[in-house]
Every structure is written in structure tokens, then in C-alpha cells.
């Protein structure tokens, strides 16, 4: 069975990835499960650049297909911040509870029409022969007025989608994978991998 190593240690992300790639005949491992313990400096200016930096770094350590994603939240009212700094927003070790509250505070009193936001996800693949693939997708929504829901992770409790009238943290895993930025980008990447005989 072919192996895919996904360049992340995030358990919530790994769960989503495994659910979406479940119908492929591959074993999906996290970096840790593949024995890769390296520090990766994500200093790209875009989601695509950061995804490629991570994928290339892990690919240099394993003989397998490597996937990496870089994703984040863009809030239009905040000039698309936190953007590529989403994971490091307000500091590496700051909890998402604090990050979410900080964004809500900055949007206090702002009308819904001005609270537009999106989750963006870029996925890069490095194949064992060195070929590189890229896919990107987004989900449009808005920042709610308060956190809601206990599902998902990260900024999910404050990101609302009109189609469901709730936050992405209130969606079932199946609903979220169907519409999420990562779900859409992963499915696009899956199509590319299948075309490459994976």
C-alpha cells in the first residue's frame, strides 16, 4: 500500500484528512507517525509558498508521497488578517480562545455586511520522483458576534456560513468536510494524485 505523509502534527487536521482520503488505497501518516521530527520555518508570503516549504522539507526525510497544507482565516475588515499568520496570530502559544476573542473585539459594533471573511487552504504535494502539485480552495463566510459550537478547531467557533446559518464548529464532520476549504482543496489534490497513478 502506498503511503502519504501529511506534514502536520495537528490531530484535528489529521482526522479531517483521513476522512476525506478514506476512499483512496493509501496509508495516511502524520509527520510524527512517519518518524519525522524537524523544525520547519514557514516564511512564505502566501499559503501556496508555505505549503510547498513544508512539503519539500518533509519529502527530504521520507520515501513517500508528501502532502502539506497551509491554511488560514482572512477577515476583510482587518485587511485580510490574520491570513498566513493565522497559526501564529498574537503569538505561537496563544490559545484560539484568546485569538477568537481578539478578532471579535476588533469587530465589535461592525455590521454583518462588513464582517465578511474566508478560510483559505493551499495543499502542496511532493511525489517521490520530485514532481510537485498544488491545489487551493476557499470557503466564504463571515465572523459571527460570538463563538458557538464545540466541533472543529481553531477559528471554527467564530466563522459562520450563511448556507447553514451557524458556525463551522456547529457543523457535523461530514457537513464540514463537504464545504470546508480543506475539504475542497484536498478533493482537488486527490483528483491530481489519481491522475498521477496514486
Task: Characterise the protein shown here.
By secondary structure, the protein is an alpha+beta fold. The protein has one domain (2-195): Maf protein (Alpha-Beta Complex). It contains 5 helices and 8 strands. It has helices spanning 11-20, 47-59, 96-106, 173-179, 181-195; strands spanning 2-6, 26-30, 65-75, 81-82, 116-126, 132-143, 159-161, 166-167. Strands 1, 2, 3, 4, 5, 6, 7 and 8 form an 8-stranded mixed sheet that branches. It is globular, with a radius of gyration of 17 Å. The termini are close together. The mean pLDDT is 94.
How many domain modules?
A: 1
Envelope shape: globular
Quickly give the structural class.
alpha+beta
- Give me the CATH architecture, please: Alpha-Beta Complex
Q: How much helicity do the residues have? A: 25-40%
| Secondary-structure element order, N to C | EHEHEEHEEEEHH
Write the layout of secondary structure elements.
Layout: E1 2-6, H1 11-20, E2 26-30, H2 47-59, E3 65-75, E4 81-82, H3 96-106, E5 116-126, E6 132-143, E7 159-161, E8 166-167, H4 173-179, H5 181-195
Parallel strand pairs: 1-2, 1-3
Antiparallel strand pairs: 3-4, 3-5, 5-6, 6-7, 7-8
Amino acid at each position: 500500500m502506498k503511503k502519504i505523509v501529511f506534514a502536520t502534527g495537528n490531530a484535528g487536521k489529521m482526522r479531517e484528512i483521513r476522512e476525506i482520503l478514506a476512499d483512496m488505497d493509501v496509508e495516511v501518516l502524520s509527520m510524527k507517525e512517519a518518524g519525522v521530527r524537524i523544525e520547519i520555518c514557514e516564511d512564505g508570503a502566501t499559503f501556496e509558498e508555505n505549503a510547498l516549504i513544508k512539503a519539500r522539507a518533509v519529502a527530504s526525510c521520507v520515501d513517500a508521497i508528501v502532502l502539506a497544507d497551509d491554511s488560514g482565516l482572512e477577515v476583510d475588515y482587518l485587511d485580510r488578517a490574520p491570513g498566513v499568520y493565522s497559526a501564529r496570530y498574537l503569538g505561537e502559544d496563544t490559545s484560539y480562545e484568546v485569538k477568537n476573542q481578539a478578532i471579535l473585539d476588533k469587530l465589535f459594533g461592525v455590521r454583518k455586511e462588513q464582517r465578511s471573511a474566508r478560510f483559505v487552504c493551499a495543499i502542496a504535494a511532493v511525489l517521490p520522483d520530485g514532481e510537485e502539485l498544488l491545489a487551493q480552495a476557499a470557503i466564504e463566510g463571515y465572523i459571527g458576534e460570538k463563538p458557538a459550537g464545540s466541533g472543529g478547531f481553531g477559528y471554527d467557533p467564530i466563522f459562520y456560513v450563511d448556507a447553514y446559518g451557524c458556525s463551522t464548529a456547529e457543523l457535523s464532520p461530514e457537513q464540514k468536510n463537504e464545504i470546508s476549504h480543506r475539504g475542497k482543496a484536498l478533493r482537488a489534490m486527490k483528483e491530481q494524485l489519481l491522475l498521477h497513478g496514486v
